[in-house]
Amino acid sequence: MTLRSRTMATVLAAAVTLPLALPAASLAAEQCQAQVDAALQKHAISASDVKSMKVTARSRGGKAANNFRLDAWVRLNSCSGYVMVNMTRGCLVQQSYTTGDCKIEGLPSY
């Protein structure tokens, strides 16, 4: 196989694989809702204080389509920062912390 053929094969493989990876991350984000809710409840953050929440996939830098972690960005009504919930792709909560002027007892703030 020539260099040009290998390059074309690599580009084609990436073009086919990338769209398959995005739905997997999106689906995992939807499935993690219960774990995010539990993490918030653990720190006495009421559902009425949650202004918005967005779960995003963060690449871990590898070539595999399933090499990502999930971050829940939770905006509260009571402050202008975020409560961050970092999870594995399987929704296991790794850590939680706050940003900006959000201060929650028991959570580190950055």
Notes on the structure:
There is one protein chain. Helix content is 35%, strand content 28%. It has 110 residues and is an alpha+beta fold. The chain has a single domain, classed as Nuclear Transport Factor 2, Chain: A (Roll). Strands 1-2-3-4 form a four-stranded antiparallel sheet, covered by helices on one side. The longest helix has 29 residues, at 3-31. The radius of gyration is 18 Å and the shape is globular. The chain starts with a helix and ends in a 12-residue tail after the last strand. Mean pLDDT is 79; it is low at 3-22.
List keywords for this structure.
alpha+beta; Nuclear Transport Factor 2, Chain: A; globular; disordered N terminus
Task: Please give the structural blueprint.
Blueprint: H1 3-31, H2 33-42, E1 50-59, E2 68-76, E3 82-87, E4 93-98
Antiparallel strand pairs: 1-2, 2-3, 3-4
Concise structural overview:
By secondary structure, this protein is an alpha+beta fold. It has helices at 3-31, 33-42; strands at residues 50-59, 68-76, 82-87, 93-98. The chain has a single domain, classed as Nuclear Transport Factor 2, Chain: A (Roll), CATH 3.10.450.
Q: Strand order, biggest sheet? A: 1-2-3-4
> Count of helices?
2
Q: What is Rg? A: 18 Å
Q: How big a fraction of the residues is strand?
A: 25-35%
Number of E strands: 4
* SSE succession: HHEEEE
CA-CA gap between termini? 52 Å
Identify the CATH architecture: Roll
Proportion of helical residues:
25-40%
Uncertain stretches: 3-22
Q: Would you give the CATH topology?
A: Nuclear Transport Factor 2, Chain: A
Rounded average pLDDT: 79
- What's the shape? globular
